[in-house]
Every structure is written in C-alpha cells, then in structure tokens.
Amino acid sequence: MKINNMVIARCTDFSFSADRDTIDITSFDTAGFTEYLSDNKNWTISFGSMVTREAATGELGYISGMTGLGSGTYENLLDLFLSATGDYPVVVGLNDSGGSAWIQGYGILQSLSVDGAVGDKATYSGNIQGSGQFVRGSL
Length: 139
Prior knowledge:
This protein is mainly beta and 139 residues long. It contains one helix and seven strands, in the order ββββαβββ.
C-alpha cells in the first residue's frame, strides 16, 4: 500500500470498501416491494501496520536506511496528518506484490491510532476516506 508515494512499512492488513448510496422510490404502485434508484458512490480504506524505527548509524548497532522497511512509517504518516487541512487529498494506491497499482485514488487521511502493550509490538492503524473516484490501475 502506498500513500503519497510512501510505501507503508510493515503493513499487516488493509480493507478496501466501495459503496453505493440508494434512494428509496417506493410508492403505492410497487406491489408491496421497496424500489430504489442508484445514487452516489463512496469508498474507504482502513489499514494496519507495525510501528518501526530506524536508528541512526552506530545507535544500537543499526544503520539508518538499511532495513528496507519502506518510507511510510507512523512518524511520516503523523507528519502528513498534522500538516494536512480538512480537504487535503492524499494519493492512495493498493499494489500487488509486483508493485503494479490495481486501485488508486485521492482521499483524506481521516484517522491514525497507535496501540501497544508491555513486551509486545506496537501497532498503528488508520482510515482514509476517498474523495472523488478511484480507478483500477494508475491515475
């Protein structure tokens, strides 16, 4: 998964949902059945990941940039969330393992939360509300 060209590091799960609103047009002549018309479509993406940190050179024996985790860490997403206004669109892409985008669109980074427990890994999750259409393939 990519957000603003950042590969989400250690992404463990995601959920893509596309919905269509309906308008109830039931009347007395519909023989007791409800009838609907199609209306606007919307979409959301929820995702989860492990919190990762890359230490500076020499610190704890790690070398920054050498873990191959991707550029999209919790800190990067939090910076994006804090810098964004309510209508700031982020570019979202869900990719297969080969890197080819199969769903892409603009959305709003709506929420971020982080969870952890003593002796366990820290995880975070987020939600993106689609803004406008999504496309199959690249934008």
